[in-house]
Every structure is written in structure tokens, then in C-alpha cells.
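Q: What does the assembly look like in three dimensions?
Context provided by user:
Components: two
Sequences:
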Amino acid sequence: MTEKKLTLALMDPPYESANSTTALRIISAALQKGIHVNVFAYEGAVCLPLKDQAPHANPVKGTTVEQEEHPTTRAFISSLLEMGKENPQLTWVNCGLCVDERGAGNVVEGVKRGSPADFLKMAQESTNTLVIPTK
Amino acid sequence: MTNYLFIEAREPFTSRDPEFLERTAIALKQRGHQVTVFLVQNGVLAARKNIRDGYLSRLTGAGVTLLADDFSLSERGIQAGELLPGIQPSGMETLVEALLTENTKAIWH
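A: Here is the predicted structure of the complete assembly.
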């Protein structure tokens, strides 16, 4: 194996756990270091790149959508996929069965559909693999 | 010798889950392995020196390397001077380097 590559398996749905933020930070740090990254999104994590996510205002604070600057996971993932377009490369695969169960097929550009067999392949070709399970 | 990298996201005040980490990390260290614990998210709450049961002190005493995510510390208002001796604030790039070190097994807890 000449080039270093990191694989992450994610399982948490968006807006439920700090695990998602940490995972996105790990991916970002690796890409900034020129490391190739594979992501296999399983179970609720397939909703992380959902295109339909929309930022919202905060009526409690009285802020508008623009003032609130609510971050969406799909926007973070789009940015990471842009960073990992070529070299280093970010490959993001959503588990197809998990997508179908959740009706979560409308995802941002660059996200692929796959199966746990892809995760096995990713792990075999990687320097290391980190599984971030739900608690 | 294997490098074991534990990423600890849990705090010890609401459950006894981190006991697993303490027992496992010390046992691995006693068997001659290199062991690092990277505290992240609420895991960093145990890194403060004013807490009653400092299980992390027992880890440093056993020779385990302890790192604490600087972003998680900052989110929780914990300053570097409030940390137990032997715990180093670190960034995600340090975690990535550790993950890519040869012969490393990474365990998220």
C-alpha cells in the first residue's frame, strides 16, 4: 500500500449525536493532510447528506435564517466532497438498503450507493478503519 | 507490540462505561503494548483535575498516553490549566496521525 487511506463507518443520524460532528472533523483533518478517505454510511447515517435538509430560523432567539446560519450536515458533506474531489479523494458510500428503508435517496452530488460489501473492500484497501457506532 | 488507540467519547459521571476503558487500557499496557486514549466530546469532562474520581490519573500512572480534543475542551469551557497532569490538549490532525500509524488498532468507545 503506497498511499495512506482512512476508512470510517458512520451510523448516527444527523442532529442526534456529537459523533457526527467529530466524524466530519476527522474527515476534514485527514483531507487537509492529503490523506484519502472512504466513508461508509450505515443505518441513520445515510441521512447525513440528504439534499432536502434546510437551515431554519430560531424563533426562541428571534433570529432569521440568515442570522442563525444554521449548519446542515449536507452542506458540510458537500464541502468535504469538494475538498476530496481528486487528490486526496473522498469516497462517500451510503448503504443502499438503509437508504431504501428511510426513503433517503435524494442526496447531495458525489454520494454513492453501495452495500456492506463495499465497506469490506474499503477496509481491506485502507491503512486503518474506524467504526463509530451509535451508543 | 501493537498500538492501541482508544477514542473515548463518554464521561464517567452518568454511567460506569469508562471502567471498561480503564480496565482494558491498563491490561493492554501491562502486556507491553503502546496505549493511547484520545478524549473527545463529553469524554473530556473527566480530564479536569477537580473531579472526585480521577480514573484518568490511574491511566497516566500506568503509562497510558492521554490526549484531549482541543475543540471539545473549548466547547465545554475547559482551559488547559484545568487539566489533570499528563493530559495534553490535541487537535484532530494528531488523531489522524495516530490512526495512520502502522500497526494501530482503533477503538471508538
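Follow-up: The interface with chain B takes residues 4, 6, 18-19, 22, 25-26, 28-30, 32-33, 35, 127-133, 135 of chain A (CB under 8 Å).
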